[in-house]
Amino acid sequence: MSLKIVRRLIPEWGTTYGPAGEGPFPAVMVFHGSEGAWSGWSHRNAVLLAAHGYLAFPFGYSKGGNAWNAGSIENVSLDRSLEAFRALRAFEAVGEKAAFYGVSRGAEHALLLTALMAEEGLDGPPDAVAVHSPPDVVCGAFDSKAHRDAGDPGWQPWDPGERAWSWRGSSENLLPTKQIEIERYDGPIFLSHGSADRVWSVDMTKRLEGRLLAHGRKPEVHIYDGQDHIPTSAAENLHHENLLTFLERNLLAS
Length: 254
Fold this sequence. Notes:
GO terms for molecular function: fatty acyl-CoA hydrolase activity. Helices cover about 30% and strands about 25% of the residues. The chain has 5 helices and 13 strands. It has helices spanning about 40-50, 80-90, 105-120, 200-215, 235-250, and strands at about 5-10, 15-20, 25-30, 55-60, 70-75, 75, 95-105, 130, 140-145, 160-165, 165, 190-195, 220-225.
């Protein structure tokens, strides 16, 4: 029996998942959240995308960690993420189009990197950007070793006193609470959020949508009624249908 989904290694960067055959295939760079690179969720999302015709690259950007510890999102170099995206675009199995897909902190990562590329007018921006449960502002650092469950004394989703990201060797322009200026990007954008999200309020996606509309952009927005940060099976199925339709329209259409 032949494999329908195969792994391919981007030398020095990591594994990808894609359809069998020579390709080339449209690509999606997948950004994990605070669960970290080792948790497997971004690989699971990559395999789902691969099953639908995409070469998906789950990019591990969190620092440290292992199979039992998510590591941290602190002073993560977005320059390195840009290098990884360029390596993906240059990969022999990848076609002309490539997108970003991120969830939660991965959504923040995808939006920030896109906005910074647009601000500097860099070549080769993503052909589409899809995010689920995004914040609309830069957030502080996250360290899994210090994490507490909601309701525990001292609980907070991130540390406002520490910086999560750096760009061009500095974090000074990426301070917590700064707006993510995704309106600088003029490509197709997919935003989705659960209306009952207790980690990132759905108001964040609504503010992103409002700013995009005010700048003449036309984002595709899906609000999933009653859904928390992690959706139910039925809601996740609906989300994947919406996501795949968006990617097909923007990566597969000639």
